[in-house]
Amino acid sequence: MPQLNFGNYTLYTKSDILTDDVRLKLIDDIEFEAKTRPVLEDSIPPLQTFPDLLKKYTTPHWESYKESILKFTSEYIDSELVFDKTWGNISIPNQLYPMHSHTSDFSVVLYLQNLYPVYGTHIREDFIIPGLQNSVLMFNGELDHCIVNMPHIISSRNRRISLVCNLNYVKK
Description:
By secondary structure, this protein is of the alpha+beta class. The protein has a single domain, classed as Jelly Rolls. Helices cover 23% and strands 30% of the residues. Helix 1 packs across helix 3 (60-74).
């Protein structure tokens, strides 16, 4: 499992995290959420779902997602983690994602659908982690990052869909 050390941070990645059946069902749910329950706040990019997906969905494919993420994180982190927020992002033409960070211990990005891996996750202004379809990226939530913004000609052909969660250490 590849990892990249960056200053005081370590980024972790893994490919082939879900079965295609689970991945496609998650895509369907995120598409449904973006269409029927859109977030209409100026500070939130269009076609981002509300961050309550794990509270709303308890179907087997969402349980499989949770198990896969926790299994992945346990390969690197020797402490119990708990899900905080989980949301979907759908990249569309003329959409800009600003650099930002989270207050969580870890952020995890699962690239559910992405035809062009070069449009992955921008870490600070320093480098891009490729967004390979059905791969996962985990990093410290305080690390500045953003979705790589695609040119219109690419985004019109690449409906990039990711599922993001914030994880925190279990408080004892």
